[in-house]
Every structure is written in C-alpha cells, then in structure tokens.
Amino acid sequence: MALSHLLLFGSYYLCLSLLSWLGLHRAWLQLAARHTARPPHASPPKHWPPVLVQLPIYNEPSVAARVLHHAAAMRNVTRIQVLDDSTDETTALLEEAITRLRDSYPQLAIDHIRRGSRAGFKAGALAHGLKLSDEPFVVIFDADFCPPPDFVERTLPPLIGAPPKTGFVQVRWGHLNRERSLLTRAQATLLDGHFRREHRVRSARGLMFNFNGTAGIWRREAIESAGGWQHDTLTEDLDISWRAYLAGWRFLYLDVFSAPAELPETWASLRGQQSRWTRGSIQCLRKLSRRVLTAPLPLPVRLEAMVPLVANLAWPLVFLLMVFSFPVFVARQELGLQELVLLDLALLLPCTLSFFTFYFGVCRESGAGIPRALADAILSLLLGVGLSVNNSRAALLGMFGVSGTFVRTPKRGDANRPPSRSKFDILPLLELVLVAYLCVLLYLALLWKVHLGLPFILFFAIGLGVSSLRTFRR
Fold first, then answer.
1. I need a surface site. Which of 29, 150, 245, 320 has the fewest CB within 10 A?
2. 51-265 sits in which CATH class?
3. Minimal CA–CA distance to 44: which of 155, 147, 137, 149?
4. Does pTM top 0.90 for this prediction?
C-alpha cells in the first residue's frame, strides 16, 4: 500500500474515530440524564434583595417593546436597564414604551441607556450597564425572549439557597414558534437536547456548563470576580462562564420551567446565528483551554470542561469525512479492501444511533408521541448535516484567530411581520457542489454494489441539498 493510501485511510478513520467518541459522549449524557435529581425546592427570602434586569438591544424593532413589557411585568424587580445600541427606529419605539411603562409601574426604575457607540457589542453594553448600577443580582434577557412574570420568584430563591459560591442560575429556553416550520421544529429539538441533557447532567454532577447569554440570573460578585464581561470572543456568555468556573464559582440549572423565545425562521438567519456561536466557541477554546487543562481540578472534571469547548470541532470533521469518502471508496475498490466498509459501519453506526436516541429521548421527554419523536429526531440530524459546511467555515475562522463582528440574529416578532432577511452567502454553492460529489459516490456505490454505505451517503446528500436550496429561497 502506497504512502498516499496510508495517509488517506489514516485521515479518514481518524475523523470517524473522533466523531464516534463524541457520539459515545452523547450516549453517556443520555444515560446519565435518567439518574439526575431535580434541585430541591427553595423557600422565598423574607426580604427580597434588589434585582437588576438588563436588556441588551440592537436594532430590534419587531421585538424590543415586547421584551420590555414582559420584563416590566416581572415581580420583585428593582431596576430595568434598556441597553440600547440601536441605530434605527428601535430607539423611538423603546422611548414610547418606556414612557407608558413608567406610568404603569411607578415603583420600577427603567433606565434607557444609550452609549453612543457599539464598542464591545453585547458584552460592552452589559459591562457599561453594571457600572451604572449596584444591585447584587442581575437578570439578563435578549430581545427575542418573553420572560414570565414569576421568573425572579422562581430563580432567585434557588440561587440564594445554594452554596455561597453559586454564581448563576440558568433556565431552559422555550420556543414561541416551534410549530411554524420543520426548520423551527428541528432547531427546538437540538436546543432541548442542549438544555435537557447537557445542562441537566452537568449541573447535577457539579460539572462545568455555560450561561447561555439570556434567561438567567447572576450574582454580581461572580461576574466581577471572573474579570467582568469581555468582548474578545463572539460568545461572551461562554467566555465568562468558564472564567467564573475557574475562579471557583459553580452554577445551577433549572429545568422545571422555561423562558420562551423565538427561533430563527429562515435558513439564512440560522446560518448567521450558528456561525457566530461556532466561531465564538472556538475563540474561547483558544483563549481558555490552557487555563482549563492546568486548573487545580480533578482530571475528569477538567476533561469534561473541555468537551463543550472542543465540540464544535466536530463540524470540520464531518466536512472532511464527506470529502475523504470518495477517494477512500475508490481506493478500497482498487486495493481489494472492500471489507473495510465493515469498519466504517462499526464506527458510524454507534455514532449515528447515539445521536438519534439522544434526540429521540429528548423529544419523548418533551411530550411528543413516538411518531413525532422519530420525525423530529431525524429532522434534527438532517439539520446538523445541513449546517456542517457553514459551521466548518466558522470553526476554521475561529481557529485561525479571525475575530469577526457580532451580527445579531434577525427576529420576526409580531406574527404579521414578514421574516427578516440576512445577506446572501455564497457558501450554499459549495454545498451544492458537495451534493453533486456525494451523488457521484452514491452512483458508484450502486454500480459496485456496496449497499451498506448507501443510507449514510444519501442522508448527507439530502441534508446538504435541503440546506443549500432553502438558503437560496431565503
């Protein structure tokens, strides 16, 4: 066997092995979630401490007033900061809403804060707001959320009643528009897996998990002792979570209720959101991995803390797997190594099944019947494949230190408004090329009667094809 073949097969099976390891980790999360107890009930305090609500907003005309009205209706809130960096009609809409709400809630301080620039993006706005306030507890909501009136009543007592070094309480996201399309259903399934499995298991076991940027309440002391909000990554929430954890703080996740929010309704807007999340997480990996690996913590804890940071490296692995699949397939035929397809199955099947059962279990826990759970689990996997090229690019940009700009995700808000659009991206053309590439591989597999790999090739081609064509439709 030539050296070129050894390098080809070695690279291909390395990608497969690493993806299989991530699949096994998902299987562990699925099993561990069955044995996690809910946090104990916490009694309300005799005297409610001051609570600040921060609403970072940038050009959100369809949802800005809505989130402000919901925030004002929350009980046991002392002050609301509308951190408005907008450059469009959002500012005027907010001024009008604030005037009305000050009359309706005279006991509530509502500050409309305009910085005059967008320096530091969301992290800069949050940090600026903290300088102008002194409340010991801070609630954060993004503009597309509709916080329930009892949010503080249900999150502050567990935070106060937890050990003193508990830094924040994160709440599960709900989905206002889950049923709007197959795309929103698939997104909801992926997010439910993140919260109902990853957060639940890690919180129950005292392991590292991250604040999700919204729908949570912080101790101000935890933010400040971690070094405050920093804007050298595109995921300031992930960044401050790890820094706070390394500073000795621990976190609590509540799964007993949710804070509803919007899901992106177009492929283009979803691509932008996922690109920012992926690139930001890799930036955090570059920034924090050495500190995590050398922290004075047990080795299993440090390794588990690394998993969320490295998880998005799976996207380039999936992309490489698709690229390598064609030359590997041809090389196996030329060398008479067709039986190696059994090794492919031994690595691919457990990985695929673990991800499928992971999301199927999440759907069943959310109340879906078996047919609906099967459909949504398949949709979520197809969505993952469809995002693989987009997120691979984002991961590579993060690896090579390309900082990028914090681009907000377009919101729909009022159901009568048309969905917001994102700029055209040439990346779907690459996806179509890759679909054609996989179709040729599919033809060769049929021609040479290598039927075991057909479902996987077809699944990848469908996922990428739908993603590309739907993005062009915008």
1. 150
2. alpha beta
3. 155
4. yes
